[in-house]
Design a protein that fits this description.
This protein has a single domain, classed as Growth Hormone, Chain: A (Up-down Bundle). Helices cover about 80% and strands about 0% of the residues. The radius of gyration is 21 Å and the shape is globular. The protein starts with a helix and ends with a helix.
């Protein structure tokens, strides 16, 4: 489900339905502004929810049910596609994902408070996300399609598969996964108290600033990747092979980043991933369209996806540690609200990064329908997929290197929380 949403849909709507790149960029930005309002609200309500199946699961049921409708409307649009169709359903999709995903992310942090086990939980989630990416990658290879390119016909089949499989996955999670054990000594308080807590939470501020730069870089490259190799390098017919290799690289990278996070700390493993991303991002500018570009592109792109796996695996585990720090300081369980802010940052980065990239290439006169591109438009695509992302990755790594919560300090936080909990129960 997530592959098309984050990287394919904008280019599909530009290439096959004639939507303007600048308009698509505007939609990406507007959807993120809308999320800035809805994300904290859902996080706050999720923390306040009580039900026989826990705080988080009811939201997942409602949210993912609504997601099914938006997915189908986006993946299978009417014959005469209007710009407002893309705008309305894209914004609604992200609203429905917010309803489901913020409680889901908070629930993930509540399953365990162990520094290393929390990383393992996130890693397993990333592995299955990668498995989903593999299924997405091989979908254009099905014999029912006349080409191996990603086309609206492929998206239609994917929509049907998602509508069938997603409810099954949600029901398994709801009925079989544990609800977790949130630790709190008092109510979570008001939204204003959350904002005050965020402002005073130094580890959170360091992390979120660092992640904003990484996310902007990843958002630009994720949204530009398909446009770059399809309309610039001219290797769109190799899409299944490219995506399959990317998914395998991300899967193979998960245990490596998990090992490195346990070895040098999550925050420094995250910084290392950013530095390596700079190196491979710069390599993109040396690729030129031609019959021999595919092997070189694959080598660089696979390495980039290997690094990108760090962005997928590590931040959610770091956020769990940050929530524990807040619990110690505030006495409240505000995981939903913290993950709302984090999820908002994730989607903000994808939207703003993708919007910025599309605005750049449009401003430099890039034409997705052209077979040859002038020097100005090529510079625009280089800035959007290489130069700016590299700068953002570098800034993020410098900020994150000195993040204050490592395994030893988290152990202290955890013991103090448990001690506080025992005193409350004894009193």
């Amino acid at each position: 489900m997530y592959g098309p949403i984050s990287s394919i849909l904008p280019t599909i709507y530009a290439k096959y339905y004639g939507l303007d790149l600048a308009f698509i960029g505007m939609v990406l930005l507007v959807s993120r502004v809308f999320d800035a309002v809805t994300d904290p609200v859902i996080g706050y309500l999720s923390d306040k929810t009580t039900s026989p199946i826990g705080q988080r699961k009811p939201w997942m049921i409602v949210g993912f049910t609504l997601v099914l409708f938006a997915i189908y409307r986006l993946y299978v649009p009417p014959v005469d596609v209007q710009p407002m169709h893309f705008m309305v359903w894209f914004i609604l999709l992200y609203l429905f994902l917010t309803i489901a995903e913020i409680p889901y992310a908070a629930w993930q942090a509540e399953i365990t408070r162990d520094y290393r086990v929390r990383s393992k939980v996130v890693a397993y989630r990333a592995v299955f996300a990668g498995a989903g990416g593999l299924l997405f990658a091989v979908s254009p290879m099905l014999p029912m399609f006349s080409t191996h390119e990603m086309t609206p016909e492929v998206l239609k089949v994917l929509a049907i598969v998602i509508v069938v499989l997603l409810p099954i996955a949600v029901l398994i999670a709801v009925f079989y996964a544990p609800v977790g054990k949130p630790v709190a000594t008092k109510a979570s308080g008001t939204f204003i108290s959350l904002l005050r807590g965020l402002a005073k939470n130094r580890p959170f501020l360091i992390f979120i600033v660092s992640y904003m730069f990484t996310g902007l870089a990843a958002g630009m490259q994720q949204i530009m990747g398909f446009l770059y190799f399809d309309t610039y390098l001219g290797i769109g017919d190799r899409f299944p092979v490219i995506l399959l290799s990317m998914s395998i690289a991300q899967l193979a990278a998960v245990p490596v980043w998990l090992w490195l996070a346990n070895k040098i700390g999550k925050h420094r493993a995250f910084a290392v991933g950013n530095v390596l991303s700079v190196i491979f991002s710069i390599g993109i500018i040396f690729l030129k369209p031609g019959p021999d570009v595919f092997p070189a592109f694959m080598a660089i792109w696979i390495c980039m996806m290997f690094c990108f796996s760090a962005v997928q695996v590590i931040p959610a585990a770091i956020m769990g540690d940050i929530v524990d720090y807040d619990t110690l300081k505030s006495g409240s369980n505000r995981a939903g609200q913290y993950f709302a802010v984090f999820t908002m940052a994730v989607k903000f980065n994808l939207g703003v990064g993708g919007g910025l990239a599309f605005f750049l290439v449009d401003g430099f006169g890039y034409d997705v329908a052209a077979t040859l591109h002038d020097r100005t438009s090529i510079i625009g695509i280089w800035i959007a997929i290489s130069f700016l992302p590299s700068l953002f990755y570098l800034i993020s790594s410098v900020i994150m290197w000195h993040f204050p919560i490592d395994e030893r300090k988290h152990g202290i936080i955890r013991r103090r929380i448990e001690s506080l909990k025992e005193r409350i129960h004894a009193g």
